[in-house]
Amino acid sequence: MEPEDGADSLGPAALLASIRSRKAAEDQAAADVLELAARWADLHPPESIHSAASFTVAGCEHEEPIAGPGAPLVAEFCVAELGAVLGITSVSAKKLIGHALELRHRLPRLWSQVHAGRVPAWRAKAVAEVTIHSSPALTREAAAFVDAQVAAVAGRIGPAQLDRLVAETIKRFDLATADPAADPEDGYLHVDPRHVTIHDQDVHFAGTVRLEAEVDLADGLDLHQALAHRAATLKALGSQESLDARRAKALGDLARTQTALDLFQHGHTSGPDGQDLPVAREVVLHAHFDATLSGDTTIFGPTGRLEEGQRLVLLDQLRSWCGDSRTKVTVKPVIDLNTEKAAPGYAIPDRIRDRVVLRDRACVFPWCGRPARGCDVDHVTEYDHHADAEGRPQPGPTHTDNLAALCRFHHRLKTHSAWRYDMVAPGVFVWTSPHGHRYRRDRTGTTALDPPDPGPPELGPPELGPPRIPSPRR
Known about the structure:
Layout: H1 12-42, E1 63-64, E2 74-75, H2 78-86, H3 90-106, H4 108-115, H5 121-132, H6 140-152, H7 159-172, E3 195-199, E4 210-214, H8 217-236, H9 243-255, H10 259-266, E5 287-294, E6 297-306, E7 311-314, H11 315-322, E8 342-343, H12 350-360, E9 376-379, E10 398-399, E11 403-406, H13 408-416, E12 420-425, E13 428-432, E14 438-442, E15 445-448
Antiparallel strand pairs: 1-2, 3-4, 5-6, 6-7, 8-10, 9-11, 12-13, 13-14, 14-15
């Protein structure tokens, strides 16, 4: 790559100055994006949702509270177009708008510091994320107290300090007294940090996932003792794995109600009375492997694809999972994706749904990554329920070249907004947004196509004068 602006001839001091100026430009651009995201929300208040009648149709657009109490509500479908333009998911766009509204309406001091260049946007967004999702919710006055404290240190506050500040704010403003779970003696319910999070979308190539948890002290000590005991038992039974690996295995055994111990005691899958023991592992995985036939033998390739998380999976891993304590294994026949399938009527049979799921892999809306197996299957061209009765050709048949996987939000968006899409080839879709932006979505991902005419080019950064701010809603 050729260096730009003669960077190879810069001395150390000039190179550092150039890096610093680029970082300042990056911070300013991030601040501008926050401002413009808030203005995008201003253009889409709940009043912009047009209703033709006094009743609402199920699935139609509704108003969305995406920031804390006192911030404006937003028409929910507006997040999709902003996300598409930025190349991010609708969920990420919703979070961006929420952060912008939270800062502008409930954390105005921090908002001002971001635009003055004293606090980077990422720090301010981290604070906004906490104040939006505080439990119990922070009132506008409580959020203002947090804003004042954080602004006083120019946003330089770590996650632990921020959690303590929010907990103090909840107590100071007596926000937990209305909570039936609050202590009547103290009138204060601290921010409950307990959680168990399994990062199942971040699968390691070794077939493992990371989990983190915060539990009551007594529960933690009990779990530690149970894992230590089970790890020692596995070692006594001949396991050569490390202590960490045995503790991890012990946790899985707890989740399966100690199925490995049951199998060791009985040596089979039936109980003492002869009754079949229930299948303990009920996790469903969908793995795809290439296979070849050698005589009467099927030979599978060493690597395959796991639908869950769209990750690589090794055949040896799959064998170990399937061979472990009463795992139920179902082998389905190969589906030829090159063969089109159709069905009469509107209902989508499982055989056609499976083909669409395997072809699309994920929701086909631009940048969306929700797995297709959990999505709706949409008729790209709407099915006409009256065509057969009126003797007209069916414009939207239940046919694989007229079906696509859409998550529920984007299915509603397509049905009740101006977003439109066409299938231009099997599994290849071209979307057009309400403002004319076009996107191509296929199995490799999303590509932005020719955008609409943006108007005259900008000569510099956008002018971000006083915005039109809608009245806060409670």
